[in-house]
Amino acid sequence: MTDQELYELCKQYGREARKWRNKFVALLPEVYKRRLYRKKKFHSIYEFAAKLAGLSKNVVDEAIRFDEKFKEMPKLKSLISDVGL
Questions:
Q1: What is the pTM of this model?
Q2: What percent of the chain has pLDDT over 70?
Q3: What is the DSSP string of the chain?
């Protein structure tokens, strides 16, 4: 494998990682509302997000805060899973 091929693979995997991370972040407000993290024996939403996706407390707080702000804007809210916060 050449350096260029390795670099292209790194870029591809990086894009995929961001895509799936954004999808996970978009699920967090619903996980929080349903208290799914408690049902699955996590101590907090922060532990849930950190262990399952490696997310920080700030990212979790931001996802929950954005959910409140976008209640009146469902189309904009639906874009979070595609473009991120």
A1: 0.80
A2: 82
A3: --HHHHHHHHHHHHHHHHHHHHHHHHHHHHHHHHTHHHHTT-SSHHHHHHHHH---HHHHHHHHHHHHHTTT-HHHHHTHHHH--
